[in-house]
Amino acid sequence: MSAALTDAGPGRWRLDVSYRGTAFSGWAHQPGLRTVQGELELWLPRLLRVDHQLPLVVAGRTDAGVHARGQVCHFDCEPGVIADDGTTLLRRFARVLPDDLVVRRVQRAPEGFDARFSALRRRYVYRLADGPVPPDPLHRDHVARWPRPLDLQAMNTAAVGVLGLRDFAAFCKRREAATTIRTLIELSGRRVDHGPLAGVIEFTVVADAFCHSMVRSLVGALVRVGEGARDAEWLAGIAARGVRDSGIQVMPAAGLTLEQVDYPADDQLAARAVEARRTRELLGTTDD
User: Fold this and answer.
1) Between the CA atoms of 57, 62, 68 and 71, what dihedral angle is there, to the nearest 10 degrees?
2) Which residue, of 59, 104, 143, 270, has the fewest CB within 10 Å?
3) 1 falls in which pLDDT band (50, 70, 90)?
């Protein structure tokens, strides 16, 4: 390994990360289990040659088996630990991380940046194959299967009824002291029309933040509509009641990918973080 990273530099650094979630028990630390956070925090102090842990703050805590193409996290370190623009640390990550985890970019974080609280929205895509032919074998790790054909138009019509600011308790697994109030910005499906995923349904789900199992539960409810077992009024009624419904299936984790996290302009990062913290303090502790 090359010389240690030295000289002065900003204290906060942003990591852009991708991973195949199949063999991970989610993002967050869990005793005795392999997690994305655990893997990165194992290597980070070693690569920077410091004798203490460097905790990561993440934009969205993905569940076990969920993938990420556009995950974002940050860590703080003392000035002088990283000398360059992050290129050396990026190369070191590439040499030691396993094949299912990649740090795609390391960069100094702008003033006021917080990977979690500065985020404006998160975009997930859920991929589902409902045709008679299984998905391309090279893509099966991130496409779930459904045994019956689905009516995409009916699902998109029903999805409109759950958009906006509301309590999504019907679609979230409860966690102590956690709010389930979210703003759902987009929920829509389309069929891929060409390429190796042709025919696969891609559900795009965008919100300011997400609670535990929210995306997979929303898709599970739409699937009930798409196969004709329920209708749009049923879905709207569940959303309005805000009570967990046993009729909603939580879809398999394999189909879900965190694609993107959006942030405001650099000069608005700090204000956005303050606003998000204030809102979450009023509502209670939240997931992402």
Assistant:
1) -20
2) 104
3) very low
Write the pLDDT tens digit of every residue in 190-242: 999 999 999 999 999 999 999 999 999 999 999 999 999 999 999 999 998 88
Tell me how far apart the alpha carbons of residues 109 and 157 are, in angstroms, rounded to a whole number. 41
Q: Regarding beta strands 144-145 and 121-129, do their DSSP bridges make them parallel or antiparallel, or are they unpaired?
A: parallel
The CATH T-level fold of domain 12-108 is Alpha-Beta Plaits (3.30.70)
For 204-227, b/e burial (b = at least 16 CB within 10 A) is ebbbbbbbbbbbbbbbbbbbbbbb
Reported as type and span, the H/E element at residue 126 is: strand 121-129
DSSP 8-state class, residue 51: S
| Sequence ranges of the chain with CATH classification 3.30.70.580 | 12-108
DSSP state of 4: P
Report, in angstroms and rounded to the nearest whole number, the Rg of the chain calculated over CA atoms: 20
Terminal C-alpha separation, the chain: 36
pTM attached to this predicted model: 0.92
Residues composing the chain: 288
Q: Where in the chain is the domain with CATH 3.30.70.660?
A: 121-262
Look at residue 171 and give its three-state secondary structure. Answer: helix
Please say whether the beta carbons of 128 and 145 come within 8 A. yes
Indicate if 136 belongs to the active site.
Answer: no
Q: Give residue 124's identity as a one-letter amino acid code.
A: Y
20-75 pLDDT tens trace: 999 999 999 999 999 999 999 999 999 999 999 999 999 999 999 999 999 999 99
Classify residue 242 as left (phi > 0), alpha (psi -120 to 50) or beta: left
Q: Write out the CATH class of domain 121-262.
A: alpha beta
**pLDDT higher than threshold 60 for residue 6:** no
Instruction: Render pLDDT for 114-133 as a digit per residue (tens, 0 to 9).
Output: 999 999 999 999 999 998 88
